[in-house]
Amino acid sequence: MTDANPMKPDDDLDATLVALVHGELAGDERQQALARLQDDPTAREKLAVLEATDALLGEALERDAAPRPTPSGIGVLRPLLALAALLAVVAVFVWPPSERGDEASGKEPGPPAADNQVGNHDAPTIDQQQPGIDNEHFHLDIAPRGGAESPLFSDAAIELHWHNKSDHDPRRPIRVMPLPFGETHDGVSKAVDRGTHIGTLRMAVLPVVLRAKITPPAGEPFEARWAPADGKFFQVRDERKKQVVRLRDFEVQYAGIRPRLVGGPTRTGWRADGNWGATHLPRSRTMRWFPELPGEYRIELSVESIPAPSYMPWPTWDEAPVTDTAIVMAGSVSDWGEAHQGLRARLVWSRSPDSADQTPFALQIENVGTTAKKYNYAGSTIAKIPQPLHFTLVVDGVEWQQRQRIPIMISALDSFQPHPAGVRRSLVVHPDYWRNDGKKLSELPGKHRVRILFHSKPSVWNAADTSIWHGKLNTPEIEIEVRK
User: Fold this and answer.
1) Per the omega criterion (within 30 degrees of 0), is the bond before 170 cis?
2) β-pairing verdict for 471-474 and 401-402
3) Residue 6: inside a domain, yes or no?
4) CA dihedral 479, 114, 335, 469 (to 10 degrees)
5) Does pTM surpass 0.85?
6) pLDDT, tens only, 225-280
7) In whole angstroms, what is the distance from residue 473 CA to residue 339 CA?
8) Of 4, 211, 222, 420, which one is least surrounded by beta carbons within 10 A?
């Protein structure tokens, strides 16, 4: 009896699926293979694995487009790809979930916003956003993750909801490629060409890059580019897929002094992590977007095509479609305090649903003088000032004491780093680094007035160096409410 099924379960299934993925089946053979896939869930699962692994294999080859192989070469390539795909099945299934994958959203309500607070924005749904991008290849909607606002200094994100309109069989995936500063569209194109050109074939992909125009609550708009730190692309293989883009996945060109983070952000607050800043915002790499002021940040996102090769090109377009959204970073900011020897300070306090102890705040120091100033904000010194952080949390007029074992790593590069004139810097911490009679801020529910007292006094210094600053700075007070 003749088996009409072209995919024999034991011997030829994998090779036939590889041929189907690469477009090598035609006519009745292809139709029979598709019919088998409709009736056989095991075959469909294996096809999905082979498609995913095939993309990984193409990236791993990292070689220039090869000349057309001889028929014998094709015969060698096909079983090699099938074997590689099968060997990679385990790797595909044991990957941990990515932070850019689907995530559950939700926020606890915070306290009412005071006059100097930015917050309490209703969470828009996707339907309430701008119409989004819609062209023949895809539809894209964007919105802030978890609602219209996120706590200032948190690990905030936006969501990109992709609808892949490809009518290819199998579907042509949209590949969102990183575009770091210093890289060009041509450079990205060459990387995609190397990763998708295998022998006489090219894996069908639609590569794009993301560029954003960010309009902050104060100051001029600036450019941001999607370039996650891990350097990996994001692939929309299914008809619909959500891409979670953290704000720090965008690279920005930063002219000032980078913020000093004593700890690291969570989705809603702050954690004690002395390595976070050095790991995620290292000096050796381009700065990432980390909002330092409360208010609304407008994001105009463009989806740009990249130049296609002449051999088996992918789709391109001349004018990049644009969509936009806004995210509100919720918090409070004081006025500037009185200047002393060219420096002044203010307090910026986040509005977080977390415990008061894990709610981040920043001491911001601005040089309003005409020359650079040098000072230390942290470290060990014989001078009688707070240590290791050289500033004090003042609650209701009472100076609190720093607790032991504050997780801070101080680089030699931070020692007396010149603070240029006209530039602001942020030192981000949380209240858990201070105590009063052994009590934490979270143990004192109710309304409180808080401010920061900054000290700088070197143990020894060159008196001839007039750029060395020492003295005290007070910020004005902010009213906060500690929930029970």
Assistant:
1) yes
2) unpaired
3) no
4) 40
5) no
6) 999 999 999 999 999 999 999 999 999 998 888 999 999 999 999 999 988 988 88
7) 7
8) 4
